[in-house]
């Protein structure tokens, strides 16, 4: 678990109304509601289970909510469970959460929302000081009455942000999904959707697995769909992902995506339905800073479009073992794209 930058005592002196210990779904909802009028500081247990009887939005649109650990995290490990809970922070509001958090959805329930676990509006901030896990969260388009078409196409299976979303510990997203509706295709960002004004920081890396976007049309970026800024400072994994294109990552035009501090990345079992970049489709700026291993990712593994810049780090490798009939190259490069491939990069099976 990540060693936080701030002590509990330091967090407790943040100005705000101290209410006590949050133990129930109702307690958490009351804390969010109180932020409508003032900053709020509360405590929550690292061993607590906050379970709502049905899918519940915790919404804040102003001020700051700080949730400190009720235990000393220097001698205690554990996580707060949030069951059937979605956090929505908008209009410049700020949420700071000290304990590790485990979001658990219901794989049988599909919700008509952007960001099945966390939604961050433009100008707002959600910061987790320790680990975050989100599991079994599914979203779907909203139907137009009895029509086969959708009123809204939903994005971001687990997280949607147009603001600042930061995880200082390890971030793990498992079994996130976006489901199409009738004739309407599913949205993008199987685990995380970053809008043009959005920014994401994973300080200790991210692991995304068993995440998919269903139906034949639509749905790019099975792991992360980025139109803004993404920075990853720890070793990361992307496994068993599917999407129309960019099964692991879709990086949009004018977007920037950086692995920093020599962080390594591992990609495995990636399926792109339209043969457009099983690991990465890059329209903007993308940089790996540490070695990358691609295993059994469908060709082309990386697609670099016109005007994009893609930097692959030294000692990276592209391995294909399961398919003896591989067609196409590992990397597809448009004429005006810039791609840096060091001589130490190896290709097996392509």
How would you briefly describe this protein structure?
This protein has 350 residues and is mainly β. The protein has helices at 8-12, 25-34, and strands spanning 17-22, 40-44, 49-60, 64-69, 79-89, 94-97, 100-104, 118-120, 125-128, 132-140, 142-143, 150-152, 159-161, 164-167, 171-179, 192-194, 199-202, 206-213, 224-226, 229-232, 236-245, 249-251, 256-259, 265-276, 280-282, 285-287, 292-297, 302-304, 309-311, 317-319, 331-333, 338-340, 346-348. The chain has a 19-stranded parallel β-sheet that branches.
Number of helices: 2
Roughly what is the average pLDDT, rounded to an integer? 88
Overall 3D geometry?
Answer: globular
The major sheet is characterized as: 19 strands, parallel
Please describe what this structure looks like:
Residues 1-20 form the signal peptide. With 350 residues, this protein is mainly beta. The protein has a domain at 105-348. It contains 2 helices and 33 strands. The two termini are 38 Å apart.
What are its keywords?
48% strand; signal; 33 strands; mainly beta; 2 helices; disordered N terminus; 350 residues; 12-stranded parallel β-sheet
């Amino acid at each position: 678990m990540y060693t936080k930058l701030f002590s509990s005592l330091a967090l407790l002196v943040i100005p705000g109304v101290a209410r006590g210990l949050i133990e129930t779904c109702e307690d958490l909802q009351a804390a969010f509601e109180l932020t409508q009028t003032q900053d709020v500081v509360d405590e929550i247990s690292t061993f607590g289970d906050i379970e709502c009887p049905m899918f519940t939005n915790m919404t804040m649109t102003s001020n700051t909510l700080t949730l400190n650990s009720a235990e000393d995290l220097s001698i205690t490990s554990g996580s707060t469970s949030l069951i059937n809970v979605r956090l929505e922070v908008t209009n410049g509001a700020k949420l700071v959460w000290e304990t590790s958090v485990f979001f658990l959805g219901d794989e049988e329930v599909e919700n008509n929302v952007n960001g099945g676990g966390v939604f961050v509006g433009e100008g707002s901030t959600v910061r987790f000081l320790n680990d975050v896990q989100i599991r079994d969260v599914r979203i779907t388009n909203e139907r137009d009455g009895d029509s086969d078409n959708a009123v809204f196409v939903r994005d971001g299976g687990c997280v949607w942000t147009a603001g600042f979303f930061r995880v200082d510990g390890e971030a793990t997203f498992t079994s996130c999904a976006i489901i199409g509706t009738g004739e309407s295709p599913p949205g993008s960002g199987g685990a995380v959707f970053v809008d043009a004004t959005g920014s994401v920081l994973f300080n200790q890396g991210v692991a995304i697995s068993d995440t998919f976007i269903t139906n034949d049309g639509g749905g790019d970026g099975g792991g992360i769909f980025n139109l803004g800024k993404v920075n990853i400072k720890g070793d990361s994994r992307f496994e068993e992902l599917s999407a129309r294109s960019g099964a692991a990552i879709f990086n949009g035009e004018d977007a920037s995506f950086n692995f920093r501090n020599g962080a390594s990345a591992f990609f495995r079992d990636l399926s792109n339905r339209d043969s457009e970049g099983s690991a990465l489709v890059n329209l903007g700026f993308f940089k790996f800073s540490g070695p990358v291993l691609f295993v059994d990712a469908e060709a082309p593994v990386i697609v670099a479009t016109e005007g994009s810049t893609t930097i692959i780090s030294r000692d990276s490798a592209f391995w294909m073992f399961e398919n003896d009939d591989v067609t196409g190259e590992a990397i597809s490069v448009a004429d005006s794209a810039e791609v840096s491939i060091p001589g130490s990069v190896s290709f097996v099976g392509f």
